[in-house]
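Entry type: protein chain
Record version: 2
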Amino acid sequence: MVSVHNICCIGAGYVGGPTCSVIAQMCKDITVTVVDVNQDRIKAWNSNQLPIFEPGLQEVVESCRGINLFFSTDIDAAIKEADLVFISVNTPTKTFGIGKGRAADLKYIEACARRIAEVGNGCKIVVEKSTVPVRAAESIRRIFNANTKSSLNLQVLSNPEFLAEGTAIADLKNPDRVLIGGDETPEGQKAVQALRSIYERWVPNNKIGRA
């Protein structure tokens, strides 16, 4: 099985920050680095005034920040060091073109995929976390197929998010379900199992299923 020692999360917003803070608290042997282009947001994550308020979040962050949980603007370094990369950026509604006003705009997700393809090395699991997992994962795969170097081996997973505002930490610590989707290839299934093994640290086996 693929073992994960280092996680990078691109996007320090409402999903990425709390999710990776809980993972860091539950998996003390894994180094978790949350990165974002927004310097003010990262500065807030490294302060006592977090950029978002969720009951219990401050305590989770303070229990592992600087130990195995880090917040940084150095996106490239975090990607290079990671065994597993969460893409957890905004998927705003399209403002023009086909699907205007309805469809999700995947430009930020696609930009992350191009960055991973450009600076990544070795074997990496790339996990798409958003409310449009199937379309986003397909888009990421297309970009990787077109841009990936021969020295880079990437497996793409989808891991949809079900957080509710006000109960995010409780939802993360005791989720109704965790869904993981990946390729049916042997490599894809190894990647699924690697992510599953992280959640299994605190989520009952029967609550983890296939997306």
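Comment: The beta strands are 6-10, 31-35, 69-72, 84-87, 122-128, 152-158, 178-180, 208-210.
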